[in-house]
Amino acid sequence: MEKNSKKTVEFKFERTIPAPTDEVFDGWLDPKIPGNPWNMAEKLLLNPKVDGFFYWLIKGNSHYGRFTEMERPSRIQHTWMSRSTSGEETTVTLTFKKQGGDTLMTLVHTGIPDTEAGRGHEKGWNHFLDIFPEQFGNSSRKEK
């Protein structure tokens, strides 16, 4: 019985973003850019460096984490805890890979409790990741 309570799920999302990797990387960490989670925060404390913490409040739900990897412009990893993770520390890993003039952005969220609230992260991340690529493109893009 104990083992079942620890069952976890993993979600993986990919988006192709029409911008160079450094722009996409920086955009993900910029609270002014719609589509990253920091942009919608009601309250935000964000220190995006290795061992830097974040606190993010949205719709009365607090999220906490610690950045564990920061390799500009290719990789960001941080822990993620909230009511929806049942207080368990989960891991979010983002990678940014050059694809021609575009960037393939991959977000993998692991260690999520296999509960209704935990599975809700799939909808949550898709919400952000559907908005984020729209912030890039022809109008903001510099021709090389």
Describe the protein.
By secondary structure, the chain is an alpha+beta fold. It has a single domain (about 10-144), classed as Alpha-D-Glucose-1,6-Bisphosphate, Chain A, domain 4 (2-Layer Sandwich). The chain is about 20% helix and about 40% strand. It has 3 helices and 7 strands. The chain has helices spanning about 1-5, 20-30, 115-130, and strands spanning about 10-15, 45, 55-60, 60-70, 75-80, 90-100, 100-115. It has a 7-stranded antiparallel β-sheet.
Give the helix tally: 3
Q: Termini, distance in Å?
A: 58 Å
Secondary-structure element order, N to C? HEHEEEEEEH
Task: Work out the count of structural domains.
Answer: 1
Strand content is 35-45%
CATH class value: Alpha Beta
Largest beta-sheet characterization: 7 strands, antiparallel
Q: What integer value in Å does the Rg equal?
A: 15 Å
Globally, the shape reads globular
> Whole-number average pLDDT?
92
Helix/strand layout:
Layout: H1 2-5, E1 8-17, H2 21-29, E2 43-46, E3 53-58, E4 61-71, E5 75-82, E6 90-99, E7 102-113, H3 116-131
Antiparallel strand pairs: 1-7, 2-3, 3-4, 4-5, 5-6, 6-7
Can you describe this structure in just a few lines?
By secondary structure, the chain is of the alpha+beta class. Helices cover 20% and strands 42% of the residues.
